[in-house]
């Protein structure tokens, strides 16, 4: 089967096959989003909106099957529900264009949950596991990698996802506050630190952006081209944004209302991960401005019997800022021919053979930019002509 083609592609709504009316289907995954999502673009001349009908809560099933003789081949079903039908444009008297916006059922269930529990002397990730078991009843699974900090927690009567967002930023492990909550599989969610994704979650896949020296008559040397990069662009970091958001340095000021004492702590890039400081990609003399990002926290040391997030803010708040910004530095968007099970690459690493950009040596690949990249987001694009996948790839640090 030629790369970019599929063996099967179908779109169903409440069991009815609407594939003939679909111009494009897109499926989105992101480690900084709690759920996957999808958009289905329709050119409808059968009045499906009213005849099926298509409405909020309708069940959506997208079926994909590929056969390219690679490890990501296979058969996959995505299941969503409709939460909005929008962007309607009347094309003529009997045809209209619209977009069906879809999310997993848990996203809607989340809106009906209010978490108001209190926990004493528990790790934050244990608290999140307990909350999941109490409030999520649809069979969805949660896998958790535990954090180190133990805290006294009073949940603030927010939705499940907002509660998780509030808790996760406080969780740390090995001095690094880099935990994320994301949808990892069709019915499985994950709480995991970014460092663990880099170090322990590998695909054993290499994608290729081959330099001309490795081509013969304009063709790649590899018989199977599924993992060859079709298009690529870099997402350049912004040093002004990094400064403003505390990437290079940031300062935490606090005042304890019980002890009547104030404190100040400056956090420098690499304080939580020394390897990062060794391989940083800027000049210290330019980025000494810790006052570019200053946070104030009120402490109440005797308010609870145990620790709370404000009282130990130095342990997580400053590291958290830098951990998220690390995902915005060495970033590339690459497009590959689609293969059904590429969705499994999310939050895992792939090897990327980045071509050498220098004419001063004969090396084929860039020493510092080739190597292991984390897949932080995936976008699947399907239409009658084929299937492509865009990967967002992030390199942890420039190192050989």
Global Rg: 24 Å
How much of the sequence lies in strands comes to 35-45%
Low-confidence stretches: 218-223
Discrete helix count: 8
Terminal CA distance reads 37 Å
Q: What is the molecular shape?
A: globular
- The computed structural class is mainly beta
Characterize the largest beta sheet: strand count, sense, and whether it forms a barrel. Answer: 13 strands, mixed
Number of strands: 23
Mean pLDDT: 88
Helix content: 10-25%
Molecular structure report:
By secondary structure, the protein is mainly β. It has a domain at 239-326. 14% of the residues lie in helices and 41% in strands. The chain has 8 helices and 23 strands. The protein has helices at residues 48-51, 105-110, 124-135, 160-168, 194-200, 239-244, 274-278, 317-325; strands spanning 8-13, 16-17, 22-30, 37-44, 59-66, 74-92, 95-103, 118-123, 141-144, 150-154, 179-185, 188-193, 202-208, 215-216, 219-220, 231-235, 249-256, 261-268, 294-299, 330-337, 349-353, 371-383, 386-395. Strands 1, 2, 3, 4, 5, 6, 7, 13, 16, 20, 21, 22 and 23 form a 13-stranded mixed β-sheet that branches. Strand 14 and strand 15 form a beta hairpin. Helix 3 (124-135) packs antiparallel against helix 4. The longest helix has 12 residues, at 124-135. It is globular and about 70 Å long. The relative contact order is 0.16. Residues 218-223 have low confidence and may be disordered.
């Amino acid at each position: 089967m030629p790369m970019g083609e599929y063996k099967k592609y179908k779109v169903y709504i409440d069991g009815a096959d609407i594939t003939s009316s679909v111009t494009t289907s897109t499926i989105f995954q992101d480690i900084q989003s709690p759920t996957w999502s999808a958009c289905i673009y329709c050119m409808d001349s059968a009045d499906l909106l009213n005849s099926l009908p298509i409405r909020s809560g309708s069940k959506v099933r997208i079926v994909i099957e590929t056969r390219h003789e690679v490890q990501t081949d296979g058969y996959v079903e995505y299941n969503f529900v409709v939460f909005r039908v929008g962007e309607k444009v009347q094309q003529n008297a009997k045809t209209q264009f619209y977009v069906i916006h879809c999310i997993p059922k848990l996203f809607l269930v989340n809106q009906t949950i209010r978490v108001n529990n209190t926990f004493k002397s528990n790790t934050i990730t244990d608290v999140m596991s307990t909350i999941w078991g109490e409030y999520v009843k649809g069979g969805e699974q949660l896998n958790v990698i535990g954090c180190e900090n133990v805290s006294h927690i009073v949940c603030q009567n927010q939705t499940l996802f907002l509660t998780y967002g509030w808790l996760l930023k406080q969780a740390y492990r090995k001095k690094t506050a880099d935990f994320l909550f994301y949808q990892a599989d069709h019915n499985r969610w994950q709480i995991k630190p970014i460092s663990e994704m880099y170090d322990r979650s590998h695909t054993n896949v290499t994608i290729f952006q081959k330099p001309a020296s490795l081509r013969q008559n304009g063709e790649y040397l590899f018989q199977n081209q599924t993992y060859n990069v079709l298009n690529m662009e870099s997402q350049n970091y912004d040093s002004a944004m990094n400064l403003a958001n505390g990437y290079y340095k940031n300062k935490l000021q606090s005042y304890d209302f019980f002890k009547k004492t104030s404190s100040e702590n400056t956090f420098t890039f690499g304080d939580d991960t020394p390897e990062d400081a060794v391989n940083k990609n800027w000049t210290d003399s330019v980025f000494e401005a810790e006052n570019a990002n200053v946070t104030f926290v009120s402490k109440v040391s005797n308010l609870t019997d145990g620790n709370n997030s404000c009282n130990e803010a130095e342990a997580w708040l400053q590291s958290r800022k830098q951990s998220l910004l690390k995902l915005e530095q060495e970033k590339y968007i690459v497009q590959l021919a689609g293969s059904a099970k590429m969705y499994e690459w999310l939050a895992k690493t792939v090897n990327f053979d980045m071509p050498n950009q220098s004419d001063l040596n004969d090396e084929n690949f860039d020493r510092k930019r080739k190597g292991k990249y984390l897949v932080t987001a995936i976008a699947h694009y399907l239409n009658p002509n084929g299937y492509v996948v865009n990967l967002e790839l992030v390199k942890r640090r420039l190192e050989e």
